[in-house]
């Protein structure tokens, strides 16, 4: 790990923890929050904006030349950029479900370099840097050793930016191949759960960059195979995502329905 990346890992680790604590405080007071919909099943709470503002201010003070892109306040990216989702899984957050997290990733020249995912309501902190492995709460983690898709548990995410029929078709093909399918409504945690072996794969026909950049590093460094998400206008427009443990990657890729190359 070069000094440029190491400096950012050390500094932003503390910011992620503070942001998670702030989000958890809002979660405990969620009945007092203003909650609205940006679109179909696209939830927004005042906590989202407050946490993103906090993260932006802290990172900008430490690394003023780095670009910042966030779900709530936007941004266009750059050669060195942080991409943040202040609360991934806002629908869960708003309804009292603990399956949500703060997700912060860093990319340099369109290469994912750093990933932090903190699920404070579950007390789980994931961290990874390219070439340095993945930890959860300070302990190294690896993907599951599953080698048969008929024994696999995979998660398939849903996006309102694609027809529901695409999602249902993907679910159907995966179940026909023999896997069990789940959906927990947090793409970032979906990737983290592949990394720690709770599931064997995560796929979504479209996902936004802030939902997945941190997870790309976390899952990949834990041994998962992932597609090259960072192509085209990926920062602002998103892309498909496919991630799997090596033992089921080929079969999961076959049922995905879109051309990707896991590596």
Describe this structure in words.
The chain is of the alpha+beta class and 263 residues long. The chain folds into two domains: 3-140, Fructose-1,6-Bisphosphatase, subunit A, domain 1 (Fructose-1,6-Bisphosphatase, Chain A, domain 1), CATH 3.30.540.10; 149-256, 3-Layer(aba) Sandwich (D-Maltodextrin-Binding Protein, domain 2), CATH 3.40.190. The chain is 36% helix and 27% strand. The protein has eight helices and 14 strands. The strands form three sheets. A seven-stranded mixed sheet has the order 3-4-5-6-7-8-9, sandwiched between helices. Helix 1 runs antiparallel to helix 2 and helix 5 (187-195) runs parallel beside helix 6 (209-221). The longest helix has 26 residues, at 3-28. Mean pLDDT is 93; it is low at 36-43.
Oligomer: single chain
How much is the average pLDDT? 93
Helix count equals 8
Q: In whole angstroms, how far apart are the ends?
A: 21 Å
Specify the CATH architecture of the largest domain.
Answer: 2-Layer Sandwich
Low-pLDDT parts are 36-43
Strand content: 25-35%
User: Rounded to an integer, what's the Rg over CA atoms?
Assistant: 17 Å
Which H/E pattern describes the elements?
HEEHEEHEEEEEEHEHEHEHEH
CATH topology of the largest domain: Fructose-1,6-Bisphosphatase, Chain A, domain 1
Structural class: alpha+beta
Total strands: the figure is 14
Main sheet properties: 7 strands, mixed
Query: How does the overall form come out from the CA principal axes?
Result: globular
